[in-house]
Amino acid sequence: MIDIHCHILPEVDDGSRSLNESIEMALIAREQGIKKIINTSHYHPDFRYKKGEELLKELKDFNNILRENMIDIEVLIGNEIYYTNDLIKQIDELDFYTLNNSRYILIELPPTNFPSDLCNIVYELKEKNYIPVFAHVERYREVQENPELIYEVIEAGAIIQINSHSILGKSGKELQRTCNTLISRNMVHIVGTDAHRSKRRTPIFLDAYKYVCEKYSKEMADNLFIKNNNAIINNEDLYVSKPCKEEVKKKGFFKRLFKL
Fold first, then answer.
1. pLDDT tens, residue by residue, 214-224
2. Is the full-model pTM beyond 0.90?
């Protein structure tokens, strides 16, 4: 399996705090059946996180350490880019990495200033030859209250990612409920761990895969955990099912009559 959203590199953002913790995370990931990880360090205008060539050097050094310790996991380059109103205007000048240098760009939306024009953001990014992957959408209150937002951005051409911890209810029942709503309506394309630590927010994947297998189908789980993740690192088109609109329940004759 392939984890396309993880903060495994040591001391580059708010993820792993040390080399030892990064190695522990890699060992957990290996036990979970993960073979490749895209390190998606935060790219945020307000924080001095490592980026550009400095980030690439950290990645190369860590892959060497994994090989020296005979940990058969490969870490690939990427960023989780924090959306701002100036992002698209400045995007050609920024030194961020797409997911394994593909067309796919992982976008984190501001939780306290959630954009009202998500579809326009998708269109503008696609005009610049990027395919936006919206990260951990189940965490946003606006999505929890109105999943139709996700239907609309998928129709516009976005890819939707949710976290494995959320699927399992480890981040709260509301996030798990939102994940189930989105999965059942074909409005999820990718699952990632969004792992930050070796003791909490760990790279747990296998249990979430089994959960989707049992609750939905093995075909669904394979698409969300394996096939689409593999397509991203190879810069290929994803398998995207037609999303389902919410069914509006019609009121019966007597209910309408008594309401009158």
1. 999 999 999 99
2. yes
